[in-house]
Design goal:
Elements: H1 3-21, H2 42-62, H3 67-78
Helix pairs in contact: 2-3
Amino acid sequence: MRLLPILACVGALVAGSAFAATSPSSAPVTATAPANANAASPSTESNAAKHTAKECEKQATEKKLAGDAKKSFMKDCKAGKQ
């Protein structure tokens, strides 16, 4: 006899979490073409920035820079001044 109320409670909890997991749909999302198709995507730009940072870090390590000297070198290197 106690099984039915327990199953009902469990079912209500499961159903409630299923409804909470869905996102509200306000308007359909449509894909639009970028204004400049030749522009680099943000992920490509961030990968290039990471690559530059890694190269600058490598150069700073090779020069055995530390502290303010390293910070200054990294800033200039990322800006393309090195």
